[in-house]
Amino acid sequence: MSGGALRLTGLTRVHGKGSVPALADVDLEVPAGSCVAVLGPSGSGKSTVLRLTAGLDEPTAGSVHLDGVDLAGVLPERRGMAMVFQRPLLFPHLSVRDNVAFADRVRGAPRRAARRRAEEFLELVQLGGYGGRPARALSGGQEQRVALARALAAEPRVLLLDEPFSALDARLREEMHELLAGLRMRLDPTILLVTHDHAEAAALADRVAVLDGGRLLQAGPMRELYARPASLAVSRLLGGRTEVAGVVRDGRHESPLGALDLAAPVPDGPAVLVVRHEAVRVTTAADPAADAVGTAVRVRPRGLRALVTVEVTGDGRTATVDAELGPGEDVATGRTVGLRLPVADRWVVPVDHDAPAQPVPSPSDA
């Protein structure tokens, strides 16, 4: 199988007159053979993108093109797409083999041929030998593999994934990520994935589109979005934690951290410095290469690593910087430390007057 090129143009969905759009003027390109992730919180419009793409809902405005063909009015079953949902939605009364063979049977293929192809796709998802088992006897991870095999057996031009791994535990999610990466190498499908997990998007997608409130905030490679978010909203949705308000003057950001050189030219004026916690290095207070000195006020273990929050006071104001410690590193609360913020990892975004001053830690960080 080979994937098709998908293009969404001005895609808008309004559920009722006078209501806030669930999706507003979204443009998105999914090149043939690529994986694009739509990332956003609950209610951001992610699933609406998939439903409009699949033809399960009609857009209020905009269009969906596949290989240059406008799909307006084309029934879902004729769009050349297959979707895998968060719940596998298998037929419990059928065997694993017949669940996967379903698409071929609907297309009129003989039972024997459909079952033979089903076994091939079960091998692809590492479930060879499971074909005769009843679907209701499978584990959650196995069910999702069968759902994926069934979708692939339909030989779709575009594979749509609606948070299909979110109900699995961390180990099974990682296994499914590796499985999907292997399938991409063998089959070269076009994939449009929606997820609320930025780590999953980074692991699976070539490009990521950040969605919030029905609007596309930024799209590009995840590395670019991590390092150069367009706004505080994008930074926060990608797990950014450090936000230091200040002013840009002559290529430097001035704040309680001091005057820090910026890697890219930025217009003068109020701006917020953002820097990924993974990029910040905690060192000694006497380190001559330290860009700022402050006090460690909180340390949160994260497996072999830890996240430390450092308060820095300067110019009568206080700012906080989060840094990720390396394996085996430790910092005592109350200790005075130095911080290195590499110039290449410093980035400023416009002041967001509607947003709180600092991101709210997620429950997993507490």
UniProtKB/TrEMBL annotation:
<dbReference type="InterPro" id="IPR050093">
    <property type="entry name" value="ABC_SmlMolc_Importer"/>
</dbReference>
<keyword id="KW-0067">ATP-binding</keyword>
<keyword id="KW-0378">Hydrolase</keyword>
<dbReference type="InterPro" id="IPR003593">
    <property type="entry name" value="AAA+_ATPase"/>
</dbReference>
<dbReference type="InterPro" id="IPR003439">
    <property type="entry name" value="ABC_transporter-like_ATP-bd"/>
</dbReference>
<dbReference type="GO" id="GO:0016887">
    <property type="term" value="F:ATP hydrolysis activity"/>
</dbReference>
<dbReference type="Pfam" id="PF00005">
    <property type="entry name" value="ABC_tran"/>
</dbReference>
<keyword id="KW-0547">Nucleotide-binding</keyword>
<dbReference type="InterPro" id="IPR027417">
    <property type="entry name" value="P-loop_NTPase"/>
</dbReference>
<dbReference type="GO" id="GO:0015418">
    <property type="term" value="F:ABC-type quaternary ammonium compound transporting activity"/>
</dbReference>
<protein>
    <recommendedName>
        <fullName>ABC-type quaternary amine transporter</fullName>
        <ecNumber>7.6.2.9</ecNumber>
    </recommendedName>
</protein>
<feature type="domain" description="ABC transporter">
    <location>
        <begin position="6"/>
        <end position="238"/>
    </location>
</feature>
<dbReference type="GO" id="GO:0005524">
    <property type="term" value="F:ATP binding"/>
</dbReference>
<keyword id="KW-0813">Transport</keyword>
